Amino acid sequence: MRLTTKGRFAVTAMIDLALRAHSGPVTLAAISERQNISLSYLEQLFGKLRRHELVDSVRGPGGGYTLARHARDISVAGVIFAVDEPLDATSCGGKENCNIGRNGHTGKCMTHDLWATLSRKMVEYLDSVSLQDLVDQQRLREWQESGQLRAGLKSTGRKVPARQAEPLEETVSA
Q1: Model pTM greater than 0.70?
Q2: Which CATH architecture has domain 5-85+130-165?
Q3: What are the extents of the domains in the chain?
Q4: E strands along 62-129, which residues?
Q5: In angstroms, rounded to a whole number, what is the distance separating the alpha carbons of residues 102 and 100?
Q6: How many helices (H) and strands (E) does the chain have?
Q7: How far apart are CA 77 and CA 93, in angstroms?
Q8: Which of 10, 15, 35, 135 has the smallest C-beta neighbourhood within 10 Å, fewest atoms?
Q9: Each residue's pLDDT tens digit, 133-156
């Protein structure tokens, strides 16, 4: 079982978009550059995300993509499902035909229920994690890293530019 690149890239791109939601539409070219994801791949992913009404596109100068809903209302599972990623740990894709007997009849393999339960738990967990949770986690990490940078530069006696030293401000979603 693994989460594919498609699912990982979709979640990463959505976090990037959510982090910049307050600044208006975000271009895929900007996400591509920041996250090192191919622009053509992002175009495919965002087409699917738009069809699932997770993002809106804005055409014309200053255009790009915005979240279609608040980040707190978008689950990680929703993003992954939107880009056609199955979250299934069974070898049969949940069809219960993972064991072929001598007589040619198919049925569940001995570990089918184990993997099916894992799949359900995985979906439950990813459905409980919102895009806002991941944005908050990223902002905290950036704030902690900026604090470590500030502390490290102060100990060397080098001046820290005020802009780099300040932690990111928390935004409150309505």
Answers
A1: yes
A2: Orthogonal Bundle (1.10)
A3: 5-85+130-165, 88-129
A4: 64-67, 99-100, 106-107
A5: 7
A6: 7, 4
A7: 17
A8: 35
A9: 999 999 999 888 887 666 665 655
